[in-house]
């Protein structure tokens, strides 16, 4: 009986893996799209906060607190179902990217703000003393250093984002979990299919996690 089960699993594994790898490709697309969107939002808002404009800072704070307090799944439902009330219907993939990107933008804003704040204010004063404009100071002095500081937390965010893409299955985005759910409905090989899903998630997140560990050890050795 045991050998028969192994033989059955061995015969079905390539079929399951092919379907799940297609879902993995969609997971990577959602991760990449929402990560780029979150980084763009976060970096832009963090830079704007450095200019200390009270109204702008208040609006940014509202965005950060609001989108950090709303579950990502709720944002996906709003993007996918809620926009139909204003005459817009998004496909599952862009809805997932926008929902996760807006959620991640709030976190990335705080990541970049912390990185910029970690730099000594004297660097700005020194740049102003040699005649550099604020934009040039930010571009050539502040940002390069801040980005190095923020790489580890951004890597951790990317690891979490890969796993968070699982919620996209709720709006029928054909990522790994959506494909796995369909396979289990058809075959009832639930345990084995979800074991493959876990292995695929691990294969995607482990290299990034190791890279983050390397950056943190390198940073600790330099401090």
Automatic annotation (TrEMBL):
Keywords of the record: Amino-acid transport, Cell membrane, Membrane, Transmembrane, Transmembrane helix, Transport
Residues of the ABC transmembrane type-1 domain: 24-205
Family matches, as Pfam families: BPD_transp_1
PROSITE patterns the UniProt entry points to: ABC_TM1
GO MF annotations, alphabetized: transmembrane transporter activity
Main localization, broad class: membrane
Keyword Chaperone part of the UniProt annotation: no
Subcellular location per the Swiss-Prot or TrEMBL entry: Cell inner membrane; Cell membrane
TM region positions: 20-48, 60-83, 191-212
SUPFAM superfamilies, A to Z: MetI-like
GO cellular component terms, semicolon-separated: ATP-binding cassette (ABC) transporter complex
Taxonomy, superkingdom: Bacteria
GO annotation, biological process: amino acid transport
Keyword Acyltransferase set for record: no
Membrane topology listed for this record: Multi-pass membrane protein
Similarity section: Belongs to the binding-protein-dependent transport system permease family. HisMQ subfamily.
Protein name: Amino acid ABC transporter membrane protein 1 (PAAT family)
């Amino acid at each position: 009986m045991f050998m028969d089960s192994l033989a059955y699993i061995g015969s079905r594994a390539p079929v399951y893996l092919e379907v799940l790898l297609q879902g993995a490709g969609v997971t990577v697309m959602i991760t990449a799209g929402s990560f780029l969107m979150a980084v763009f939002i976060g970096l832009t808002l963090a830079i704007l906060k450095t200019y200390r404009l009270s109204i702008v800072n208040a609006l940014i704070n509202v965005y950060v607190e609001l989108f950090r307090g709303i579950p990502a799944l709720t944002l996906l439902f709003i993007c996918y179902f809620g926009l139909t009330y204003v005459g817009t219907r998004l496909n599952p993939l862009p809805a997932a990217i926008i929902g996760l990107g807006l959620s991640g933008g709030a976190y990335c804003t705080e990541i970049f703000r912390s990185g910029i704040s970690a730099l000594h204010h004297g660097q700005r004063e020194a740049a102003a003393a040699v005649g550099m404009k604020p934009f040039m100071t930010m571009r050539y002095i502040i940002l390069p250093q801040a980005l190095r500081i923020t790489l580890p937390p951004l890597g951790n965010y990317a690891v979490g984002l890969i796993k968070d893409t699982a919620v996209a299955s709720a709006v029928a985005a054909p990522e790994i979990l959506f494909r796995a759910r369909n396979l289990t409905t058809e075959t009832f090989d639930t345990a084995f299919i979800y074991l493959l899903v876990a292995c695929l998630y691990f294969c995607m997140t482990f290299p990034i996690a190791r890279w983050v560990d390397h950056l943190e050890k390198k940073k600790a050795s330099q401090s």
